[in-house]
Amino acid sequence: MRIFVDAMGGDNAPKEIIQGSVDAVNEYHAQLTLVGDESQIKQMLSPMDYPKQLIDILPSYSVIDFNDEPVKAIREKTDSSIVVALDAAKQAGPDSVVVSAGSTGALLAGGLFKLGRIKGIKRPALGTPIPTKNHITLLLDSGANADCKAEYLQQFAILGTIYYQNIYQQKHPKVALLNIGTETEKGSILTKEAFQLLSQTNTINFIGNIESRDIMNGKADIIVTDGFTGNIVLKQLEGLSNYLLDGLKQAILSSVRGKIGGALIQKDLKSFKHEFSSDEVGGAPFLGIRGGLIKAHGSSKAYAIKNAIKQAIAYMDRDIVEKIDNTINSKTGSIEF
Asked: What's the pLDDT score for residue 47?
């Protein structure tokens, strides 16, 4: 297994990316290749304690910015950390994975150009694991495809089922369609058509429509939607979470009584925040790409990067790419339940 980490991608690169990589090496004993500015990487690694033989450096000389047009950047910035990492992964073969907190659009465009789609995949989907109460809900697509057809959503459900079965070891993950109501007749033309297709797909455990207010209660293991809606939902959840936690903190610190009460429940609050933090899952896989491609949040710090690398290890150890390929391209297209 070869894991290539984009050391220059993200708001907190390269410091937090490098620290997270070192933490992953120390905890998981993974062999990593850091891709980026060689002098910066060496300087930051120098005082750190880790098995030196487990981290290699692959130099790159530019960075794709979040404001760069993705396709143009992939074509023109051939010496960027994302492109160099993808080229290296392609050369290394199918048993390789790229982890990046950089531009989502550039990572998807680069993944398509450099690694390609698995045969039979109509559109790759970004599957974001959402922590809920003692549970993980996989939301896909969460940003790769703004415009979708019903058949894409049907395939997203199949991709999500394969991933969930193998990563979370659940034999019959429940699949739901994000909609404005639970009734069959509710929704847009897209969701109505998708509902019919999903209902007829006997390789998934489809439980019907789900409203956005029920995402966090764990009713569904997998929620499918178009990438435009999924990305809005994801960012709304992130924003609401930050708003509530900040509001609670301000309320506690606004009075002496609040400070005393806050001190008494400080451990419980930290546990609550930890349980619902997206840092716990670290990254989201691009499902349908011929190779491992894990997208970490742009604002990821070391802990999230460490967990994104953990995701990358599980992705390759469980042979997700091969299992998707076998399922999509088998004569029956069946998933083993």
From this structure: 95
Architecture of domain 125-278: 3-Layer(aba) Sandwich (3.40)
Q: In what order do the strands lie in the sheet with 135-140?
A: 128-132, 135-140, 222-224, 174-178, 205-210
The candidate with the shortest Cα–Cα distance to 233, out of 135, 156, 137, is 137
The position carrying tokens 């609050």 is 269
For domain 1-121+288-318, give the CATH superfamily.
Answer: Isopropylmalate Dehydrogenase (3.40.718.10)
CB atoms within 10 A of CB 113: 14
Rounded alpha-carbon distances, angstroms, from residue 254 to 155, 270, 272: 50, 19, 21
Q: How far apart are CA 55 and CA 50, in angstroms?
A: 9
Instruction: Determine how β-strand 125-126 pairs with β-strand 283-287.
Output: antiparallel
Consecutive 10-residue averages of pLDDT for the chain (337 residues)? 93 95 95 96 95 95 92 94 95 90 92 92 92 85 91 96 93 95 90 95 94 89 95 82 67 66 58 56 88 91 94 91 88 45
Task: Kindly report whether the global pTM for this prediction surpasses the value 0.70.
Answer: yes
The ranges of the chain annotated as CATH 3.40.718.10 are 1-121+288-318, 125-278
> How does pLDDT run across 47-93, given as a tens digit for each residue?
999 999 999 999 999 999 988 999 999 999 999 999 999 999 999 98
CA 110/CA 113 separation, integer angstroms: 5
Nearest one of 102, 28, 31, 22 to 60, comparing CA atoms: 102
Q: Which residues lie closer than 8 Å to 45 by C-beta, 6 or more apart?
A: 18, 22, 55
